[in-house]
Specification:
- It is built from 3 helices and 5 strands.
- The chain is an alpha+beta fold.
- It has one domain: Irregular (HU Protein, Chain A), CATH 4.10.520.
- It has a 3-stranded antiparallel beta sheet with strand order 1-2-5. Strands 3-4 form a two-stranded antiparallel sheet.
- The radius of gyration is 19 Å and the shape is elongated.
- The two termini are 15 Å apart.
- The mean pLDDT is 96.
- Keywords: DNA condensation, DNA-binding.
- One of its GO terms (molecular function) is structural constituent of chromatin.
- Belongs to the bacterial histone-like protein family.
- InterPro entries: Hist_DNA-bd (IPR000119), Histone-like_DNA-bd_CS (IPR020816), IHF-like_DNA-bd_dom_sf (IPR010992).
C-alpha cells in the first residue's frame, strides 16, 4: 500500500502534463493553499467527482482526564470535515 504525499503528487502531475517538477510543486501547493484559505474564511470547497470540504463547529463539552479521573471542560472548536463524493466512494469499493 502506497502513501501519496505532496512531493509524489507533484511528480505525477509533472509527468502527466509535461511540466517541470518545480511548476508542478507550485501548482499543488497553490491548490492546497486555496483550500486552506477558503476553509479558514468559513467557506466550503466542492470538487466535483471527489468530495466536499467544510468547517464544522464543535460545541464545548465535558471530558475526563484518563490519568486522574478529573472532570474538565473541553472548549468549543472548529474542525475541517470531508465528505467523499459518490464517484470516489464507488472507486474505492
Amino acid at each position: 500500500m502506497e502513501t501519496l504525499n505532496k512531493k509524489a503528487l507533484a511528480e505525477t502531475l509533472a509527468e502527466t502534463i509535461g511540466i517541470t517538477k518545480k511548476d508542478a510543486t507550485t501548482a499543488v501547493e497553490t491548490v492546497f493553499a486555496e483550500v486552506t484559505k477558503t476553509l479558514a474564511d468559513g467557506g466550503k470547497v466542492d470538487i466535483s467527482g471527489f468530495g466536499k470540504f467544510e468547517v464544522v463547529e464543535r460545541a464545548a463539552r465535558q471530558g475526563v482526564n484518563p490519568a486522574t479521573g478529573e472532570k474538565l471542560t473541553i472548549a468549543a472548536s472548529k474542525a475541517p470535515k470531508f465528505k467523499a463524493s459518490k464517484a470516489l466512494k464507488e472507486a474505492v469499493k
